[in-house]
Amino acid sequence: MKNVFYTLLLCIVSNLNFAQTKTNTTMTSQTIYQFKVKDISGNVFDLSSLKGKRVMIVNTASECGLTPQYKQLEELYETFKSKDFVIIGFPANNFGAQEPGSNEKIAAFCSKNYGVTFPMMSKISVKGADMDPLYQFLTEKSKNGFQDSEVKWNFQKYLIDENGHLVKVIPPTTLPNDEVIVHWIKS
């Protein structure tokens, strides 16, 4: 009777472990590669084209106290783009209406004032009921398999590994050239 009980218990535990493993695998198997977004010119940008690269996704704004971060973002991009690193900027008007311009005005501002050459996408919403699906993924652990987060302000940074998985969330006030970020890119 003990052997039957232990066999039954072992089967139950094995099934529970399998179900948990399957849930964890499903939860972490989603990547940014499933998304297609529009670039600042309105063309489709398939994030699967970034396979094998480390990616920093950052929500930007042209009229924010943190706007000078564009300079460090561009410097970081120029320094590491040849090492399979890319920055993707997503203009958003969610905080203090600090990105009121059209995509055309945003592109001109970034080019003229900061010489931005890293990919800039069309303006989106990064919080609220109209949150873009990519940002739903970035902020919900059930979708990204890493952690829940909230976009606190303009210039919050999401670090994505070369397999498309979210691995770190960097606060808006942390500068793009902070040692934590540089070390992550180099590692």
How is the topology of this model organized?
Blueprint: H1 2-29, E1 36-38, E2 44-46, E3 54-60, H2 69-80, E4 85-91, H3 103-114, H4 133-139, H5 141-144, E5 157-160, E6 166-170, H6 179-186
Structure description:
- By secondary structure, the protein is of the alpha+beta class.
- 38% of the residues lie in helices and 16% in strands.
- The protein is built from six helices and six strands; from the N terminus they run αβββαβαααββα.
Output the strand order for the largest sheet.
Answer: 4-3-5-6
Discrete helix count: 6
Q: Please summarize the sheet with the most strands.
A: 4 strands, mixed
* Apparent shape: globular
Helical content (DSSP H or I, runs of 4+): 25-40%
Radius of gyration over alpha carbons? 20 Å
Span between N and C termini?
55 Å
Structural class: alpha+beta
Number of strands: 6
SSE sequence, one letter per element:
HEEEHEHHHEEH
Detail the poorly predicted runs.
4-11, 16-28
Determine the strand fraction and express it as a percent band.
15-25%
Mean pLDDT level: 90
List keywords for this structure.
6 helices; 187 residues; 6 strands; alpha+beta; globular; 16% strand
